[in-house]
Amino acid sequence: MKVIKRSNDLPLFDHLFEGFFRDEPLHWMNRNTAPTSKEKVNILEDENGFKIELLAPGFRKEDLQIEVKDNRLILKASRELGENDKDLNYLRREFKINAFERQFNLPEKRIDEAGIEARFEDGILMINLPKKEEVKNPSRLIEIN
Predict the structure, then answer these.
(1) What radius of gyration do the chain's Cα atoms show?
(2) Rounded CA separation 107/97 (Å)
């Protein structure tokens, strides 16, 4: 009998369709970046840009850091454990909130980096990544001579 190890990060049927939508925004944003944590994200696109929603319960706004470096969006959070937390004798501990990092590749030359905005509300970090003007309206009329 052959034993096959399987990651539980994605449901079984998601693996069947993993390579199907290769040119979609989700693909290029995640290309070559395996999640380093289990924090969940939603990625949306409209004609003006992209929106990322990252679930970060238990963190405060001051614990979060957002950076754009080498065409990558880097989201980090870290939280110091309180003195009381270190001395507690847990009988069962299923979650521990102290740090995570997620990275996303940005589409080359399509994001207006100066216009990136973020807000944190009710444990959700929301980031707006506006498209550059030439990407918003790529069509133009060509004059015929």
Answers:
(1) 20
(2) 31
The CATH number of domain 21-134, selected from 2.60.40.790, 1.10.10.10, 3.90.550.10, 3.30.2130.10: 2.60.40.790
Residues 43 and 48: their CA atoms lie apart, in Å, by: 14
Residue whose pair of structure tokens reads 């850091």 in the numeric block: 65
Query: How does DSSP assign 75-110, residue by residue?
Result: EEEE-PPPHHHHH---S------SEEEEEEEPPTTT
- pTM comes to 0.64
The encoded tokens of residue 103 equal: 């990275």
CB 110 within 8 A of CB 129: no
Q: What is the model's pLDDT at position 41?
A: 93
- Asked if pLDDT for residue 94 goes beyond 60, the answer is yes
* Number of other CB atoms surrounding residue 47 within 10 Å: 8
